Amino acid sequence: NFIQNKSENILTLTFEELKEHFFELKHIMLTIKNWSKTEYYIDEKEKPLFHVTPETGWMNDPNGFSVYQGKVHLFYQFYPYKTEWGPMHWGHQVTEDLLKWEAYPVAMAPDQDYDHIGCFSGSAVEADGKHVLLYTGVSQKDGKEIQNQCIAIGDGKTYEKWQDNPVIKGDIMPEKFDRKDFRDPKIWKKNGRYYCVVGNRYEENCGQIVLFSSADYKNWRYEKVLLRNDGKNGDMLECPDYLEVDGYPVIICSPQNMHAQKYEFHNGHNSIYIIGDAEKEISDFAWEKKRNLDYGLDFYAPQTTELPDGRRIMVAWMKSWDARVMTKGQKWQGMMTLPRELKIKDGKIWQSPVRELEKYKKNPTIYTEQKISGQMSLDGINGRVIDMTVEPTNVEGREFKVDVAHNEEYTTTFTYYPEKHQIEIDRTYSGVNADVVCVRKIEIAEKHHAPKLHFIMDRYSVELFINDGEQTASVVIPTPLEANEIIFTSDEAATVNIEKYEITFN
Ligand code: FRU
Questions:
Q1: Is 43 a catalytic residue?
Q2: Distance, CA 499 to ligand 1 centroid (Å)?
Q3: Distance from the CA of 55 to the center of ligand 1, in angstroms?
Q4: H or E, element range at 27
Q5: Mean pLDDT taken over the chain
């Protein structure tokens, strides 16, 4: 609109206009031929097809995942100027079907005295017809970093920070609650009242989630602690989310610095959930009941929203703070998982790819009761943007392997060990050029039959849904796209059903 309202053939801009419309102009420049020769240009084919990635630069946590005026909005921790973390902005993308995303102008930059170090993670809600963002403003006071909660109010495209920020300061909490580690508010509305949960540190080593409430989302009062960890395994609890799934209250959060516990938790930063008490207006949660949300190598800081049709959808940052997994020369870093539908069954969260994916699944290749012995490839079973289900009906040997993104140089291996009821993920040969974790083992929850393995691949990632989403595993691979074979290996006879689709927008 801005360009159309300019009548000249030659576009002249004031510096103020350039500043205000920088990102719209960048979009236009993307369509200009010479742009593709500049160092800033990123060919869409160098990115995943349907997973959210930053337009350029760095992305971490999903923020403000919400429905506003009928469209799904996803904001994210964004540093546009490098493929590294830096002072946090809020990037913004919008979708109508959870798969095709449109980039909107950056919603917030760290430009105020209360957020000059960064606009950290937060959430969004539709309120009084406006789109309200609640986020953590990070600043410095007397040489010390402090974190407070702030709001910005917008129309779905442009957002203005509230004049009376911060709206929740740490000093309204009891004294031993940390003022520095106090971040990542998640807002929701229940029975006419706003609530938000915020991650916090208690004394030295404990992480906790604190609850606040408000009549108008601007004036908040401290309520109580909803969850505190045991101070032994993990400390700060980042990115809490309070949600309801199938009538059960659930808390999700990402504890930092955990120690591995069997195959449930890995060392470092994990993402967990706990199911609460459905009888309470706002439930509290028992740390001992925690479970892992994803058993892969790259999954952190998930956030959920409820769609108008009642589905609870979750998206997470498909990356680990400790791993740098990028293709050579890649000009962006970080991506989101596929949005997943959540449900509760047998006291656990089950996840499945959003059903909108169905309409982009084309060209099926199907094998029924296919015998696998030794190492085999199968006609039509290959690709890097695919949906593939492998369902073993009989595995006689000690291991059954599926190798994806494979050629003579690269491979990523998923091995099923029937005797141990385990799946091992191995990306050692996927082209990772840093010393990052490449192998993880999963204990399969369902032990009565061989696991149904549903793989979703989108160029540089593999998301595995085990047994219809009872467990999931997300993995990023930096493998060059020409490695697109899929190999099946069984040491003894095995029989499998395979169903593979290409995923395409054409
Ligand atoms: C989690 C996190 C959040 C914080 C943000 C900063 O990945 O550390 O706690 O708000 O990233 O970018």
A1: no
A2: 38
A3: 19
A4: helix 22-31
A5: 94
Tens of pLDDT, residue by residue over 132-142, are: 999 999 999 88
pTM over 0.85: yes
Which contiguous run of DSSP H or E holds residue 15? Answer: helix 15-20
Task: Tell me the residue ranges of DSSP E strands in 429-484.
Answer: 439-443, 453-458, 461-466, 471-476
Burial 170-199 (b: 16+ CB within 10 A, else e): beebeeebbbebbbbbbbbeeeeebbbbbb
- What is the Cα–Cα distance from 5 to 45, expressed in whole angstroms? 33
Mean pLDDT, to the nearest integer, of 148-176?
97
**427 φ, ψ to 5°?**
-110, 25
Indicate the pLDDT class of residue 5, thresholds 50, 70 and 90: low
* Mutation choice for ligand 1 from 85, 178, 238, 318, CB with most ligand atoms inside 8 A: 238
**Where in 246-331 does DSSP place strands (E)?**
248-255, 272-275, 291-292, 300-306, 312-317
Q: Which two tokens stand for residue 32?
A: 């200009």
Residue 90, strand partner residues: 77, 108
Q: How far apart are CA 504 and CA 362, in angstroms?
A: 7
Kindly state if the Cβ of 121 falls inside 6 Å of ligand 1: yes
Q: Rg (Cα) of the chain, in Å, rounded?
A: 23
149: buried, middle or exposed (CB in 10 Å: 19+, 13-18, 0-12)?
buried
